[in-house]
Amino acid sequence: MKMHSAYNNLFLEFRYTLLFVIRWSILSLFIGFLSGSASAFFLVALEYATNTRLEYPNLLFILPFAGLFIGFVYHTWGESVVKGNNQLIEQIHNPRKVIPLRMTPFVLIGTILTHLFGGSAGREGTAVQMGASLADQLTHINRIKIFRRMLGRIRPIDRKMLLIAGISGGFASVFGTPIAGAIFGLEVFLLGRLQFDAILPSLLTAIIADYVTQSLWSVGHTQYFVPFVPNLDSIGLCISIFCGIGFGLAARFFSASTHFVTKLFSKWISYPPFRPLVGGFLFAVIVSLTDTFRYIGLGIPEIVESFEKQQSIFSFLIKSLYTSFTLASGFKGGEVTPLFYVGSHLGNAFSQFLPLPLPLLASMGFVAVFAGAANTPLACTIMAIELFGIQVGVYASIACVFAYLSSGHSGIYSSQLLGSNSKIRNNQRKNNLL
């Protein structure tokens, strides 16, 4: 009798697992195709906008009016989606209303306009918001009887996994890093704990989305090269720790300055559409007067240069300030690519007095500043391996962990919650160390 019960339980467990795999494989296929296609279109449009701005530099002076348009559209029709990535994280923690589909076109158009007219912003936030908002629309299959019978009813816990999968798909497809994208979706919303229940849809969606972007739509990504990586020794370990702390402090500065400038704009300018108008005007004036055009836009060519030759030691600071100002005033885009810029240029600056190869230090900074700002050291370590090769992974992992530890709890995503095992557990463990 006990043997029969054990076999019965084993069969039921196998049946449940099989149905779970089939169901989420189908859903992941849909999400991966949608998020990968959206990212492909976005990357093509972004490249066109960037090339147009480079051809016509005076477009920068239209930035204030583009900001007014973006601010007015969000204020009039986009109040329900204006919080962006933080809204996605909040919905994962407490699923309530389905994210409106308008998040996708709003953030897409806002980001393209920001880049076309010279704002300093990234692309990850846009891809993630598009992926998650498109994924969340699958919640509506509850209204369609045939899909409800095939795939089952979408419950609140399922919505969480849909959103995580959408985030993973957007991240993976915009950077060409499927494994890092999968881990990012599991790691980003809760500090110190991974949501392993969602690992299957997260991984499948990330792989499919990356395939759709690169293979189906033939949209490629920038390649980075780290030609030589020395074996890790005691000196290399100490340098990696030192640099990791420096990268973490840079991440902390970026997050703090962005939040600070956001509060200033909210305090001084009560009507939201006027914030990007004023911010765009001030930004255009500062850039033109100081002739710092190389620090606006996405900055991919400058990131590639930071792997190849010495750059100004102030490059990372200027890019950090410009991006904080752009996003805090209300323009759209992501923080991640500018953080890659900040990190690679800070690593470049470190190479001027530290005995490690320039490309290696640039690659460490590339991922570690992002790890500290987003509180995602594991995803960033894997990203280093995917982008630069497995040999870089040892150095990058040390830098990412120490950047994460030294950056503080307050990162670029204010809606992140503190997990039970995160960052030496806030003040409780700080007190134990005294």
Characterization of this structure:
- The protein is an all-alpha fold and 434 residues long.
- The chain folds into two domains: 8-216, Clc chloride channel (Orthogonal Bundle); 234-424, Clc chloride channel (Orthogonal Bundle).
- Helices cover 70% and strands 1% of the residues.
- The protein is built from 18 helices and two strands.
- Strands 1-2 form a two-stranded parallel sheet.
- The model is unreliable at 427-434 (pLDDT under 50).
CATH superfamily descriptor of the largest domain: Clc chloride channel
CATH class of the largest domain: Mainly Alpha
Helix count equals 18
Total number of domains: 2
Q: How far from one another are the termini?
A: 59 Å
Q: Under CATH, the topology of the largest domain is which?
A: Clc chloride channel
Rg, Cα atoms, Å: 22 Å
Could you say which structural class the secondary elements and strand pairing correspond to? mainly alpha
Number of strands: 2
Features:
434 residues, mainly alpha, Clc chloride channel, two-stranded parallel ribbon, globular, disordered C terminus
In brief:
Helix content is 70%, strand content 1%. It has 18 helices and 2 strands. The chain has a two-stranded parallel ribbon with strand order 1-2.
Secondary structure elements and pairings:
Elements: H1 2-55, H2 63-77, H3 85-93, H4 103-116, H5 124-136, H6 145-151, H7 156-175, H8 178-187, E1 190-191, H9 199-216, H10 234-268, H11 274-290, H12 300-306, H13 315-328, H14 336-350, H15 358-374, H16 377-388, H17 390-406, E2 417-418, H18 426-433
Parallel strand pairs: 1-2
